[in-house]
Specification:
Elements lengths: L3 H4 L1 H7 L8 H18 L1 E6 L4 H4 L5 E3 L1 H9 L5 E5 L2 H10 L4 E3 L15 H10 L5 E4 L4 H5 L3 E3 L4 H7 L4 E5 L2 H8 L5 E4 L12 H10 L4 E4 L5 H6 L2 E2 L2 H11 L3 E5 L2 H10 L4 E3 L13 H10 L8 H16 L1
Parallel strand pairs: 1-2, 1-3, 3-4, 5-6, 5-7, 7-8, 9-10, 9-11, 11-12
Helix pairs in contact: 3-15, 5-6
This protein binds 1,3-dihydroxyacetonephosphate and iron/sulfur cluster.
Length: 324
């Protein structure tokens, strides 16, 4: 019988630029077991771009930004979906494909944006601004989505805000995303005070220092960064848009003002691009590991269940987004 590290050798070849050889034996057993469990359970793994490379490149079947994961979750035919990402992503997958078993390997994989607002807050905002539509970022709980008119992601926020044909919208809960979109549209945007704990830490001074230390570097910033950071960057877009930018523009040197694992994951595909890595980790994304994906598949944990009445209303908001 071959050892797990031998059976997974071809996978290691893919990630050898970002995972030192000494670490591979630690991952190989779990990878080997996960691949077998996926076959046995007819399961697929959806992984967000912020997952670590051993998950992203070695066990995931579908990878992408929040929008791509939502779209692709809807079309999954397998019996089981394991969401290697955070809780709201697993809820969105369950909303869009309710007959499937959707598993999140760690229930504490949350999000500072999702935690910043409750359904009661949205009801109060509606009272304060009667008739103003509520556009809600997917980084929210299913209860908050259920109180919303339509959802958006960082990929489609501007298009969605403008698609409503109104002069004013409430956009929740990311204040910086709302301000960054407001800078690109004539629609008036009423924002909430939520922030992403990863992106709020970047500053314009960081970018100026990076440009000084690494001449010629191209700076890409996620729109969850503060507006003064986005203004200072060369390009701003969702995680998928940043990845596409590197693929199409092939900048010789690049820095991604976003979560750490993004650079590792893209670097695997672009050996000719130099990645400068000012690292901000998302502690929630990092709760997902090979070990708990293995357990999730083995013990069917933790299954996402949504109260049907809430699900019906939240699904409407997500489906309206996908229809635009
Ligand atoms: P996108 O992948 O949609 O750009 O979102 C980034 C993010 O922070 C998700 O939690
Ligand atoms: Fe939430 Fe920010 Fe982490 Fe994304 S990176 S899951 S927005 S805390």
């Amino acid at each position: 019988m071959l050892k797990a590290s031998t059976r997974t050798a071809a996978l290691y070849d893919r990630v050898r630029r970002v995972i030192p050889p000494i670490e591979w034996p630690v991952f190989a057993d779990d990878i080997d077991a996960i691949l077998e469990l996926k076959r046995q359970r007819n399961a697929v793994i959806l992984a967000h771009n912020y997952q670590t490379p051993e998950i992203f490149h070695c066990v995931a079947d579908i990878v992408g930004d929040s929008l791509a994961l939502a779209r692709k979750a809807m079309a999954v035919e397998a019996d089981v979906i394991v969401l290697a990402g955070v809780h709201f992503m697993a809820e969105t997958a369950k909303l869009l494909n309710p007959k499937k078993t959707v598993l999140i390997p760690d229930l504490k994989a949350g999000c500072s944006l999702a935690d910043s607002i409750t359904a009661a807050d949205v009801r109060l905002l509606r009272q304060r601004y009667p008739g103003v539509p509520v556009v809600t970022y997917v980084n929210t709980s299913v209860e908050v989505k259920a109180e919303s008119d339509i959802c958006c992601t960082s990929s489609n926020a501007k298009i969605l805000v403008e698609s409503l044909g109104v002069a004013r919208v409430i956009m929740l809960p990311d204040e910086y995303l709302a301000q960054n979109i407001a800078a690109q549209t004539d629609v008036e945007i009423i924002a909430w005070k939520g922030h992403c704990e990863v992106h709020e830490r970047f500053t314009p001074a960081d970018i100026r220092q990076l440009r000084e230390d690494h001449p010629g570097v191209t700076v890409l910033a996620h729109p969850e960064c503060p507006p003064d950071v986005v203004v200072e960057a060369d390009f701003s877009g969702s995680t998928a848009a940043m990845s596409d930018y590197v693929g199409s523009q092939k900048p010789p040197r690049v820095v991604l003002m976003t979560e750490c694992s993004m650079s590792d994951n893209i670097a695997v595909e672009h050996p000719d691009v130099e990645f400068i890595r000012p690292c901000n980790l998302c502690p929630h994304m990092k709760r997902i590991t090979l070990a708990n994906i293995h357990l999730a598949l083995e013990q069917n944990r933790h299954e996402v269940r949504i109260e049907p009445e809430i699900a019906a209303r939240a699904r409407l908001a997500v489906e309206r987004m996908l229809a635009v």
